[in-house]
Specification:
heterodimer; A: 472 residues; alpha+beta; D-Maltodextrin-Binding Protein, domain 2; 2 domains; 6-stranded mixed sheet; two-stranded parallel sheet; 17 helices; 43% helix; 12% strand; globular; B: 290 residues; mainly alpha; MetI-like fold; two-stranded antiparallel sheet; 1% strand; flat; SBP (chain A)
Chain lengths: 472, 290
């Protein structure tokens, strides 16, 4: 009897101990190490909004966000106010704002990821999304997104670059569209009507040639030939009716470097440099130098994004002197514009609570209220706004009052044929930049031949390994 | 017979301990970890990722892009060797002959070394500007140019090396100068009395005496040039058309732009082996000659 009682007591003690341990393990709300997918059931409301019915105050969650403005940021005061507003609206979310370097941001971010220090929320550009999704750096936020009441107020296209296999990995934050920015006065001085000059490749080549005057140290078109040369070059391939790569139905990639469209585009780049002699001498100069040449009146035109007006005006350009129009149509008769922008991504290794808090933070900064506040700030301070927005419920006409109507119209026209950047850009970029730089530096280079060589190399070193990995 | 008592040199251990720990932690651990990473299709989010064996190594050894970067690296090595390595040796030899104003010259040679390297490179980049650059302007007075220094596939490498010819010898010069000064003046004076001219004194007395410094400097120079990154990145970012992409730049791009950390680590391991091998060969040759 005594023995039995002892056994029963021991068993009960063991069961109790196991239950206590299990409870302790499952009851970890502290925010460490649960990791995994942000699609797990949120602890607050799906939107991340504070639940009014909650009887107890939510537990404080601390998140790290790399969004501290630089000391010389024109929006610093606004951002700091918005940070304070967020904290008062969501007192249970404590945000540590960290400042990132101005250059080599990607390297800094990847180093942090490798070191296990990925911020809980991070602001990233469209082209990086492909890599971050593939590498598992951006959390799958599909469930959080779908449960959010504000999701219907975003442009469906704003989600494209942040979506893979039907899953959503980024909260849209901003969008821009690229087009040709030109100096109205320089065009007028050369007796050129922009509507005619910017009609197609030929008319633009001739106009750019006319705008080039070495005696005045002035040239027609600031071409991008640096190590990001593929960024603008791809537009010319689209204008010729093609693209640099094709994503196949099974997820594999196919190169189209040797297609007629790519060869035509490269030939046109070569012509701008050698036939029309309409570009700068230093064809591999940086994008900053291209911008500088434009706002100082050295170059009459350049490819630009719809959110660059502020920079140009800050640097001394008269906004009334800036023209913005779709790029001249290529052989296909079209002139698609690239759509780019930024997303908020969330650390997939953060705890569910932190992911939810980071999502709440991202949604707050992409909300109507915060975006309109930013637009109003720009308007009040004479900063030309980015006319494209990821939201459908913002009436941009309120914020462009006083802005040149043709510029507003130019941005709208450019956005009519949006296009995302080419597939596998991050891996293929050096392989296509080389032929672009070669034709800009060597008059005798044959576009078809060097593209063939580039394609063979890229096929062997990038596409074959990539496709075999996908097909496994 | 006395038995020698074994004693632990605690003081020695105490003094060596911090540096040994730091060396192991910050030199050998990263080195071994790099080799470890190179054996995986490395995932930075869920390390180490899929085991790849030697696939990353076979991949780089059959990659034309990698061999082009290796070729560029060695062309830079030859250019730096031919154009810059010997300069501080000559400067030190000449300086040792100067009596009046010696300190002033040493100061002037050292002055450029206090300028941050990137700032110096940026100044040269502006000097190379084809539209406003000073270099083309100066050359125009002697009927030369204009040259597209950083836009011409044939001369870009030379343009990157050129600044080191003029302002890259400060510390090396001091080391060589100190070694020369350590040669006893009595020997040099005696040689002079015996009729040895400056040329003969240099070849038979000075250079052999500073040989050990030259060898040490060469090893440092070699690894420095073979792993050069900053000055090339600031000047050309590896362009135009990949003509200045060196292995160290390819390593960074492969890791951070393409997220292929395993391949990047394999390239690093390759360069480590190359430099180690060259250093061993060079040491062997030196010891045979001795």
């Amino acid at each position: 009897m005594v023995k039995r009682s002892w056994q029963t007591t021991s068993l009960m003690a063991l069961v109790t101990a196991v239950l206590v341990v299990m409870t302790a393990c499952s009851g970890n709300n502290g925010g460490n190490g649960t990791g995994g997918n942000a699609s797990s059931e949120p602890s607050n409301s799906p939107s991340g909004e504070p639940t009014e019915q909650a009887s107890e105050a939510p537990e404080t969650v601390e998140i790290v966000v790399w969004d501290k403005p630089h000391a010389d940021d024109a929006n610093k005061a606004l951002r700091e106010k918005q940070f304070a507003d967020f904290e008062s609206k969501y007192p249970h979310i404590k945000v540590n704002h960290m400042e990132q370097t101005k250059e080599k941001e990607r390297e800094q971010f990847m180093t942090a990821v490798a070191g296990g220090e990925q911020p809980d929320a991070y602001f990233t550009a469209y082209p990086d999304m492909e890599t971050y999704i593939a590498e598992g750096i951006a959390a799958d936020i599909t469930e959080l997104w779908n449960g959010h009441p504000d999701k219907g107020n975003f442009l469906p296209s704003s989600l494209d670059a942040g979506t893979a296999d039907g899953k959503i990995y980024g909260v849209p934050s901003s969008m821009y569209v690229t087009a040709l920015m030109y100096n109205k006065q320089m065009f007028a001085d050369a007796g050129l009507d922009p509507a005619v000059a910017l009609k197609d490749w030929n008319s633009f080549g001739e106009a750019a040639q006319k705008l080039t005057d070495p005696a005045k140290n002035q040239y027609g078109y600031a071409i991008l030939g640096m190590d990001w040369a593929d960024w603008f070059f791809e537009y010319y391939v689209w204008q010729a009716g093609g693209d640099l790569t094709e994503k196949q139905a099974d997820g594999t990639a196919k190169l189209t470097f040797t297609s007629d469209a790519t060869v035509q585009a490269l030939q046109y780049y070569k012509d701008l440099k050698w036939k029309y002699k309409a570009t700068q001498k230093n064809v591999v100069q940086s994008l900053d130098d291209n911008q500088k040449d434009f706002y100082t009146g050295r170059s009459a035109s350049t490819v630009a994004a719809s959110d660059w007006f502020g920079t140009m005006v800050t640097k001394g350009m008269d906004i009334a002197n800036i023209g913005f129009a779709p790029l001249p149509a290529g052989p296909s008769g079209t002139s698609p514009a690239q759509v780019g922008g930024n997303y908020w991504i969330i650390n997939p290794k953060a705890s569910v609570e932190k992911q939810e808090a980071a999502f709440t933070y991202a949604m707050y900064f992409s909300s109507k209220e915060v975006m309109e506040e930013g637009l109003q700030f720009n308007k009040d301070n004479g900063i030309f706004p980015n006319l494209l927005t990821v939201r459908t419920d913002i009436d941009m006409s309120q914020f462009v009052e006083g802005m040149p109507t043709d510029l507003v119209e130019g941005v709208r026209n450019a956005a009519k044929e949006p296009h995302l950047e080419y597939f596998l850009k991050s891996r293929l970029s050096p392989y296509i930049v080389k032929p672009i730089q070669t034709v800009l530096l060597d008059e005798k280079a044959e576009p078809a031949a060097i593209l063939q060589a580039a394609q063979e190399l890229a096929q062997k070193e990038v596409i074959d390994p990539y496709n075999s990995e996908i097909q496994k | 017979m006395t038995i020698k008592r074994f004693s632990i040199p605690w003081m020695l251990i105490l003094f060596l301990f911090p540096s040994v720990v730091c060396f192991l932690l910050f030199k050998y651990y990263p080195l071994l970890h790099m080799i470890y990473i190179s054996l995986f299709d490395y995932s930075i989010v869920n390390p180490p990722g899929k085991f790849a064996g030697l696939t990353n190594y076979t991949g780089i050894l059959t990659s034309a892009t990698f061999w082009e970067a290796v070729s560029n690296t060695f062309v830079f090595f030859v250019l730096y060797l031919v154009l810059t390595f010997w300069v501080p040796v000559i400067q030190a030899l000449l300086l040792s002959e100067i009596r009046k104003g010696n300190a002033l010259f040493r100061f002037l040679y050292q002055l450029p070394t206090i300028m941050p390297m990137v700032a110096g490179v940026l100044i040269w980049k502006w000097m190379y500007n084809p539209d406003f650059g000073l270099l083309n302007y100066w050359l125009s007075f002697v009927g030369l140019g204009p040259y597209l220094w950083l836009n011409d596939l044939d001369i870009t490498k030379l343009a990157i090396v050129l600044p080191s010819l003029f302002a890259g010898s400060g510390i090396s010069l001091l080391l060589y100068y100190s070694a020369i000064r350590s040669v006893p003046t009595e020997i040099l004076e005696a040689a002079k009395v015996d009729g040895a001219g400056p040329w003969k004194r240099m070849w038979t007395m000075l250079l052999p005496n500073i040989k050990f410094i030259i060898i040490i400097q060469f090893v440092t120079f070699m690894s420095g040039v073979l792993l050069a990154y900053d000055n090339i990145y600031v000047m050309t970012q590896g362009g135009p058309a990949g003509s200045t992409t060196v292995v160290s730049m390819l390593i960074v791009n492969t890791a951070f732009q393409q997220s292929r950390f395993g391949v990047s680590a394999a390239m690093s391991a390759f360069m480590f082996l190359v430099i180690a091998l060259l250093t061993i060969i060079q040491n062997k040759i030196s010891s045979v000659k001795d």
